[in-house]
Amino acid sequence: MAGEMVASLHATRAWDALEPKRQSVIIRGLSKWFGPEQILDDVGFSIGEGESLVLLGPSGSGKSTTLRLIAGLETPDSGEIFLRGKRIEHLRARDRNIGVIFQNYALFPRMTVAENIGFGLRIRKWGKKKRGEVVDRLLDLTGLQEQRDKFPSQISGGQQQRVAIARALAYEPDLLLFDESFSALDPQTRTGLRREIRALLRKLGIPALFITHDQEEAMEMGDQIAILNRGRLEQLGAPDEVYNDPQTEFVATFLGAANVVEGAWRDGFIALDCEQCLRAPRPAPQMSPQPGPQLGMDRIKMVFRPEDVTLGAPTGLVETPHHLGRGEIIDVSFAGATESLTIKLLPRGYTGPPPNSHCDGGPDRTCNLVIKAARTKWEAKRLRLAAGSAVSVGLRSYKILRG
Question: Mean pLDDT over residues 101-105, rounded?
Fold first, then answer.
């Protein structure tokens, strides 16, 4: 179906001659209060021509409010919204030329697919012939020609989504907004449709903003991801940047699984609170480590992904840039292509001589430090592990979080 979705439009349309990439949408200092509660606090981002930006965050983070402010369904208390160089925050929703695809699609049940697509053109007083030409092109573009005379109740959820998108495209919008538009679909349909819509948007070069709480959807759909938390923008960047280089603990733990471990920087080593140690450069000033209770100690938080953990036989050092010591497998969970493990790090886990006095936990020290690890099925075959197995634990990489 993806091939059908990106069939070219044989017409003189704005999207046939794509403009050079530029900032199509600019949001500056957007804030919104509902009574005594501030929903958005100085949010800003931009979307380039033909780009897709995903607003990601938990419930109550301000995602839907941001979309409604851009669409003109709410009025900001402060801030500016630019669309193609024109300020629009003062304009009515119908004057902004923005297409919105809602979660329930908002299709008219008594209209056919073709009538739903052409509805916006009809109320804009387009002639019947010109309206029919646009509807035909959009039916071809979205692969819906065979469904043109059916009613919404007679087509699938994925096809209803395509109708909603075609209807939004009919009047040549400058921006498309998707309000959790895939959440009502079953997982298989949702995955396939996301790819089709992504290909369609790239073909047409229309900027889009997606609202979602689905992390997988955000990683797949976005050229940029903006993570909101309690109305503030925590981090903005490309999906790989946000995932691999989180700037806050919230981003690290919200976008994918992450281990966040507290410890102290001591004399060229990071000593975890449970006495595991690894050699590390001194945290940069912008990391803002907190002074520890003893002279020469800086409190830090270290984050690493489960796939950053390496495991080896307990009798030696695992091949890794950063050695954590020994651990005991608490749980193993098989998930097809990957295997997830829960590991308890053991006290005095360093298998060689302690690197300095700070890393010698003593013979009777206990440890409650538990981390998550992930392995490919091939790694799992090379070293079989089960609950109770002893392992040597290391890290491929890690990041020190800002204070």
Answer: 80
